[in-house]
Amino acid sequence: MPTKTFLFIAIILIIILIRTKNVGIAFRSINTLIHEISHAIMALITGGEVKEIKLNDNATGSCKTKSRGKLKTFLVSSAGYISSALFSYLLFISLGKSWNHYFFYFFLSISIFALVFWIRNTYGIIWTLAFASINLGLIILPNTIQIYSNHVLLVFGLLIGIDNILACITLVYISITNPKKAGDASNLAKTTKIPALIWALIFLGFSLFILYKSYLLLFKYIFL
Question: Averaged over 116-141, what is the pLDDT?
């Protein structure tokens, strides 16, 4: 299991890195990938279509989907922030488990699938290839998974969870200053007639709740 010292260092470095220009974008793009893939998977589950996914060089992204019906559109639009929060928590749950190395196969699989079918912009292709290569390396290098899986998954979980919280805070701000440009919150506002700010606050509240649950989980694993 990761040590208390490693956790503290990882949290501090991640907060610094994701707020650092250029370098931070590469790390934040992990959360962007999970966020946009979540929209895509929900679209497919609900019988819709996925047209394109973009991962941009400012750590933003987009997923163009086509869904019929308000309920399906609602589910697709709400999937991003909620799934990122839950996925980070799932990574924390996996720490110390014998099956957690399968996450590297998952990351590799979604990267390849997204590259083949959905990602077409230059930054998105280059970044996803790099991310896929990292996960492939973790899989094929001798004993790498056994030695480093808990540490790497802890870092991935922190990256996704922290960036998702910051993205939700930004979404709240945009929902106040320019509600028509608030991404998923704007889409939900169009579908439900509930203001974008309310949806942004719901996403933030849910993410903070998962952050609290993650804190309790990590406290149990590392401090007890």
Answer: 95
What percent of the chain is modeled with pLDDT above 70?
96
Q: For 51-109, write each residue's pLDDT tens digit.
A: 999 999 999 999 999 999 999 999 999 999 999 999 999 999 999 898 999 999 999 99
Give the C-alpha distances (Å, rounded to integers) separating 60 from 92, 154, 188, 214: 24, 23, 18, 24
Cβ(151)–Cβ(221) under 8 Å? no
Query: Between the CA of residue 13 and those of 93, 120, 185, what are the distances in Å?
Result: 22, 31, 30
Please indicate, yes or no, if residue 43 is contained in any of the structural domains.
yes
Split into its structural domains, the chain has a count of 1
In a domain, 182, yes or no: no
pTM (two decimals): 0.92
